[in-house]
Each structure stands twice: as structure tokens, then as C-alpha cells.
Specification:
Blueprint lengths: L5 E3 L3 H16 L2 E5 L3 H11 L11 E5 L1 E3 L9 H8 L8 E3 L8 H12 L12 E4 L24 E6 L4 E6 L1 H6 L3 E5 L5 H8 L12 E4 L10
Parallel strand pairs: 1-10, 2-3, 2-6, 3-5, 6-9, 9-10
Antiparallel strand pairs: 4-8, 7-8
Helix pairs in contact: 1-2
């Protein structure tokens, strides 16, 4: 099994924030793709508060990993959460919303990535960092078990129907996630422990990504509490 460094702490968002500041100081200008969810929200809050002055925001260009098919001001919008939690407090940062509420928004966002993010020899955008979460079912981004987007190898961005949730999402595909220089997972909660164990064995959608760093709490890591 390919090594997956695991950083276990009671506050994985804080651990990731410290490491993120160090990483950004090392690489300077950076392109970052971020997920929605409760753990990334905790990280965004830290970056907008305690760590705000440690980041040179004009050097950061932020993209979305996935999005629900709702308008940007909808309560379920990942963009709205990102904007209210981080972007409104990150002076000078550039961010690009996934237009998941538009019929051909996947094509538009793919074209944007190809124009704004450096590409590898295969023409795939290469992010400096992708921040990911993981569901209790082992999904990451909006790449859910049993869905068509898991098999997509040509496109960078697609709409993905998720029958088990009776919904549709827009998501980056595995080729883009695999091409990133760094892949970090932020995971919390005992309900994720079984999936995390399977992912470490290479199972489930999140298990398809290797050379990832995991910032995780003891419960999600399967460590018993006191």
C-alpha cells in the first residue's frame, strides 16, 4: 500500500492550518481547490481569523472541488459557505465559483481551469494543493460510490448524478485530483472510522487517491476515547 501520512489530533483543522501557512510560505503563489463540508468550514474560519495575517492573500487563487446544483446564494451552496467563512475575510484573494446552477457549467469551469491553472504534459490542470473531505460512505469531492464520474478519465469537470442522494453535483474528476502536487484530507467523527480503515486499504472512492496527507481526529482514526 502506498504511504498515506496521517496526522491525528483533536483539532485537525488547526493542524492543517498551521501546515498550510508553512506550505504557502514555501511555494509563494498558489492555486488551491477546496471542498465544502463541516471540517473545511472549521479550517476556513481559522484562516480568516487566527491565521489571517500569516497568509499573503493576493498570491492565492482559489477554486472549488465540487458544488451542489443550486444558486450561489442558496443555503446549501458550498460557494456561499466559502465566501461567508473565508473569502469575505481574505483581502486580495482571487476565487472562482463553480457554476453548477448553469446547464453547461461543467464545460465553462473546465475551460476556466485550463486557462488559469498550469497543466502537465497530458493537458491536465495541476493544483498546488487540493483540500478534500471524506463522507462516511468513502466519497470524496462529489465522487460517490457507484456513480458514473468515478470512471471519467477524459474530462476535468463533470456533472455527476448521485441516485442514493437523489441529487446532482458538479465535481472535479480523478485525473485532476491525481495530478495535484498535494492532496490533503480533513476528516472528523467516529462515523468516518470504518470508511477510513477501508480507504487506507485502497478501497472506496477516496482510497483511489494515493500520496495524500490526512488530518484526522482520533475518533475518525478509530482510536477509542477515554
Amino acid at each position: 500500500m502506498t504511504a498515506r501520512p496521517v496526522h491525528i489530533s483533536e483539532n485537525p483543522a488547526h493542524t492543517a492550518a498551521v501546515r498550510l501557512c508553512e506550505t504557502l510560505a514555501e511555494i509563494g503563489h498558489a492555486t488551491i481547490a477546496v471542498s465544502g463540508g463541516s471540517t473545511p468550514k472549521a479550517l476556513f474560519s481559522l484562516l480568516a481569523g487566527e491565521f489571517r495575517s500569516r497568509i499573503h492573500w493576493p498570491r492565492i487563487r482559489i477554486f472549488q472541488v465540487d458544488e451542489r446544483c443550486v444558486p450561489p446564494d442558496h443555503a446549501d451552496s458550498n460557494w456561499r459557505m466559502l465566501k461567508e467563512t473565508l473569502l469575505d475575510h481574505a483581502p486580495g484573494a482571487t476565487a472562482h465559483r463553480m457554476p453548477a446552477d448553469e446547464e453547461r457549467g461543467d464545460e465553462a469551469y473546465e475551460a476556466l481551469l485550463l486557462s488559469k491553472v498550469r497543466c502537465n504534459n497530458e493537458g491536465v490542470p495541476v493544483f498546488d494543493l487540493v483540500l478534500l473531505g471524506m463522507g462516511a460512505d468513502g466519497h470524496t469531492a462529489s465522487l460517490f460510490p457507484g456513480t458514473a464520474a468515478l470512471r471519467e478519465r477524459e474530462r476535468c469537470v463533470v456533472f455527476n448524478d448521485v441516485p442514493q442522494l437523489q441529487t446532482r453535483r458538479m465535481t472535479l474528476t480523478f485525473p485532476v485530483l491525481e495530478a495535484a502536487d498535494r492532496r490533503w484530507f480533513l476528516v472528523q467523527g467516529a462515523e468516518k472510522a470504518e470508511a477510513f480503515e477501508r480507504v487506507r486499504g485502497g478501497e472506496l472512492p477516496a482510497g483511489q487517491l494515493v500520496q495524500c496527507a490526512w488530518f484526522i481526529d482520533p475518533e475518525a482514526a478509530g482510536q477509542p476515547g477515554d
